[in-house]
Model the fold of this input.
Amino acid sequence: MFVACWSVKGGAGVSVVAAALAHRLAVEEGAALLVDLGGDQPDIVGVAAHHQQGVADWLAGGPGVPADGLRRSEVVLTDGLALLARGNGPLHSGARADVLLALLARDPRPVVVDCGVPLGTVCSGAEELALAVATAATRSLLVIRPDLCSLRRALAAPLRPSGLVVVREPGRVLGADDAGEVLGVPVAAAVEVDLAVARTVDAGLLLARPPRQLQRGLRHVA
Ligand SMILES: Nc1ncnc2c1ncn2[C@@H]1O[C@H](COP(=O)(O)OP(=O)(O)O)[C@@H](O)[C@H]1O
Ligand SMILES: [Mg+2]
Done:
């Protein structure tokens, strides 16, 4: 299972959803890999891995960086979950990125990628790589807050997701069904914006004490 989580606007909740989903899959399947293309996952999952070697180092590697170096960069988290960090330096697509995609696609563990940058915005190398990942994934999840600006961006996005994860603030006008209808994409999950989730993340305890509301919301997503 190769799942990509992406957004069209920063702050939607992609990193939190990706971490919570990867953790749930690790618990259920015995192992999972969380791949961070944005660089926020060490803060989200509460580990000191900011300068950890990862995807960017491997992509930039010349002859000195072996194909299995990716596996050796992984940081073991908890419950069978491993983190492949973003790494240092720029991200870019290209021939080596194709190898990365093939490696992720044939990993026996469920793989969840936090695509990192919103798609359809600045056309950077990081965005091209995120787009390649989201296109290659077997499950492409757009994490979106159902406001007009996000919906408009999603309609103009360079790819169509296979499902939506709608992160909804209580009291807002538009809900998960509205987002699904406007975009013509099935709602895979609906998650409420909840202070308890934000506090758990701020305390670095998302994996240690996954909020029940978040777990319930993501139950059938992949
Ligand atoms: N379901 C939620 N409830 C409350 N706060 C959330 C929720 N999801 C994310 N957040 C908070 O919103 C902010 C942005 O989340 P993040 O996952 O980093 O977004 P993105 O990766 O899309 O930029 C963070 O402070 C995070 O803790
Ligand atoms: Mg993020």
User: Anything to note?
Assistant: The first helix runs from residue 14 to 29. Residues 2-217 form a domain with the Rossmann fold fold (CATH 3.40.50.300). Residues 7, 10-16, 40, 167, 191, 193-194, 197-198, 201, 214 surround adenosine-5'-diphosphate (ligand 1) (CB under 6 Å). The CA atoms of residues 23 and 65 lie 29 Å apart.
